[in-house]
Design a protein that fits this description.
By secondary structure, the chain is α/β, with parallel strands linked by helices. It has two domains: 13-146, Glycogen Phosphorylase B (Rossmann fold), CATH 3.40.50; 162-323, 3-Layer(aba) Sandwich (Rossmann fold), CATH 3.40.50. Helix content is 34%, strand content 15%. Helix 10 (222-232) links the parallel strand 7 and strand 8. Helix 9 (199-208) crosses helix 14.
């Protein structure tokens, strides 16, 4: 049942999120909730251009804009920029998960409330450290001034377009791989510390079990990819390099399981809906676990440990990956208290 629309939500909303892929995907439940608060509300999402290409016209944003083109950096001075403020004032409500800690920025946006009657929410994009609150619930919490929070995390889903689906089918066929059921490894992350160190050993084990393995990498993952070729004998042709996010979504739709660390692509695979095994070491899955219907989180010793990956052995991961066939993965849905397990 939809929440009743709150007063003042009749005009198009502007939502500003400065985060990378994983952070923005964890905001999708909040964007879905914003749409439920006022079904006729047009949501404009300001994010980086790469993410805009993925989310434009999705169920979570009727329109996307390049965050840098808004000129919000001009509001981090006491003088501000009246032209920027006027552009923002065309929206109601304004939700900024940017600038919560800057008095000048907050002041320029907050003044739109008493001056023009705009509803303005300015909040952190991430939970407070050590809060134990899941990031998706934190972002939902920030929308409380606009209407009642949902009792459960709104489900979210990203689907690939027909063109990308045809591309993925062709990519697999060209490599002699089945049209569905491959195991996809993503051995990268935004920070080297978040990369599980045993992806090569896992790739060898899965290949030895007769499972078709594909590796997806980004621009910063060249060294990791080279290690998989050298140490795990992953054929070069089965390494998918520098794909667009829409192409990755299409490839993930055809996967039996996607295995990744705490990375944006693990979050993308989760919201695509395929089975995901997410490996956590120095970061806390209670806050950062991917959201999706078929996500299994495996954690090592965790943040603060001398070896945060301790206990997360290739044998343990392999068993879970081979068990995580469609329909059999452990479900991770962050609860009201922020649990990510």
């Amino acid at each position: 049942m939809r929440a009743s629309p709150s007063p003042g939500l009749g005009r198009g909303a502007l939502v500003v999120h400065p985060g990378a892929l994983g952070d923005v995907l964890l905001a999708l439940p909040a964007l879905a909730h914003l749409g439920r608060l006022a079904p006729d509300l047009r949501r404009v999402l300001a994010v980086s251009p790469r993410l805009a290409a993925l989310l434009d016209g999705s169920p979570y944003a009727e329109e996307t804009v390049d965050l840098d083109r808004l000129g919000l950096h001009r509001l981090f001075t006491m003088e501000g920029d009246p032209a920027v403020v006027d552009r923002l004032a065309a929206h109601d409500p304004i939700v900024s998960w940017l600038g919560a800690g800057d008095p000048a920025y907050r002041g320029h946006l907050a003044a739109l409330g008493p001056r023009l009657g705009r509803r303005v929410v300015i909040a952190r994009a991430t939970p407070a450290p050590l809060s134990g609150r899941h990031a998706s619930w934190h972002l939902l919490d920030t929308l409380a001034p606009l209407g009642p929070s949902p009792e459960a995390l709104p489900p979210v889903r990203i689907t690939a377009g027909a063109g990308e689906q045809a591309w993925a089918a062709g990519w697999l066929e060209d490599r002699g791989l089945p049209p569905a059921g491959v195991l996809i490894l993503h051995p990268g992350a935004g920070s080297a510390a978040k990369i599980w160190p045993d992806f090569a050993a896992l790739a060898r084990r899965l290949a030895g079990a007769g499972r078709p393995v594909v590796v997806v990498t980004g621009p910063a993952d060249a060294a990791v990819a080279a290690r998989l070729v050298a140490e795990a004998a992953v054929p070069e042709a089965r390494i998918a390099r520098d794909l667009s996010l829409r192409q990755l979504a299409a490839l993930f739709e055809r996967a039996a399981v996607v295995v990744g660390s705490d990375s944006g692509l693990s979050h993308l695979a989760a919201v695509v809906g395929c089975a995901v095994v997410a490996l956590f070491g120095p970061t806390d899955p209670r806050t950062w676990a991917p959201i999706g219907p078929r996500v299994t989180v495996l954690a090592g010793a965790g943040p603060g440990a001398a070896d945060p990956w301790r206990g997360l052995t290739p044998d343990r991961v392999e068993r879970v990956v081979l068990d995580a066939a469609p329909g059999r993965a452990a479900v991770v849905t962050p609860g009201d208290g922020g649990s990510g397990r």
